[in-house]
Design a protein that fits this description.
- The protein has a single domain (about 5-220), classed as Heme oxygenase-like (Heme Oxygenase, Chain A), CATH 1.20.910.10.
- α1 (about 5-20) packs across α7 and α3 packs parallel to α6.
- The chain has helices at about 5-20, 25-30, 35-65, 65-95, 100-105, 110-125, 125-150, 160-165, 170-185, 190-215.
- The protein is mostly helical and about 230 residues long.
- It starts with a helix and ends in a 9-residue tail after the last helix.
- The structure holds 4-amino-5-hydroxymethyl-2-methylpyrimidine (HMH).
- The site of 4-amino-5-hydroxymethyl-2-methylpyrimidine has 9 residues, from α3, α7 and α10.
- It holds the Pfam family TENA_THI-4.
- It comes from Anaerococcus octavius.
- One of its GO terms (biological process) is thiamine biosynthetic process.
- One of its GO terms (cellular component) is cytosol.
Length: about 230
């Protein structure tokens, strides 16, 4: 059996996940000191990010060549819309942000750039492009969730415990494994040139992951108030 695609790109990709894990936003969630306003910015921005992200799974479902692949994309779509976004809705409720306000969040510049890039890559290419465009999202959060859960007391934190619990849960771990398996299956037997292009999509979305943390930490929207 040939080497799995995700194993082959791992040495490069892990540097991105480590940088995300070491970002002050993530570190401060881990020790409970993160400013709640920064976290609220994440909840709102991430909610509208996930609406666009969910579309990728729908695109993948329609581009899939066989039923098994359709099922995997559909499972991902269900997981994002109902399991992952429930976390955001539950936090929003605690913060007295109603669901209409949450859904009406204006995506920031980085958020818009990230989702536009993903959707463009997903729409322009074959089904393997869709799997590549959505992978950094689940892979990085799964890495971060599992690492944060190892910090003593982090799972019990009154503010960030449920975040860490969800992203380190079996359900989310399964969702990410499903995305990784999809990528590996769709990358099988692809020529080197195409594998390089898929790797590039994963690296670029990985950079966007880092920038998303930074955007939330600095509560950025767009550069000029109008
Ligand atoms: C920006 C971003 N990346 C990844 C995830 C994990 O699904 C998320 N919720 N938001």
């Amino acid at each position: 059996m040939s080497e799995k695609f995700t194993d082959r790109i791992y040495p490069r990709i892990i540097k991105l996940w480590e940088a995300c894990f070491n970002h002050p936003f993530v570190q401060e969630m881990g020790n409970g000191s993160l400013d709640l306003d920064k976290f609220k910015h994440w909840i709102k921005q991430d909610y509208v990010y996930l609406i666009e992200y969910a579309r990728l799974f729908a695109i993948g479902t329609s581009k899939a060549a066989d039923l098994e692949t359709m099922n995997s994309f559909a499972k991902g779509l269900d997981g994002v819309l109902f399991m992952e976004m429930d976390l955001h809705r539950s936090y929003a409720k605690d913060f007295s942000i109603n669901e209409d306000e949450l859904e009406a969040t204006e995506p920031s510049a980085i958020n818009t750039a990230y989702t536009s890039y993903m959707l463009n890559k997903a729409q322009a290419g074959g089904v393997e492009n869709v799997a590549a465009a959505l992978l950094a999202c689940s892979w990085s959060y799964s890495y971060i969730g599992l690492k944060l859960a190892e910090i003593p007391g982090a799972l019990e934190d009154k503010n960030y415990g449920s975040w860490i619990e969800m992203y380190s849960s079996k359900e989310f771990t399964d969702l990410n494994e499903n995305a990784m398996e999809l990528m590996n299956k769709l990358a099988e037997d692809k020529p080197e040139r195409e594998l390089k292009a898929l790797e590039e999509i994963i690296v670029k979305t990985g950079y966007f992951e880092y920038m998303f943390w930074d955007m939330c930490y600095n509560k950025e929207t767009w550069s000029i108030d109008l």
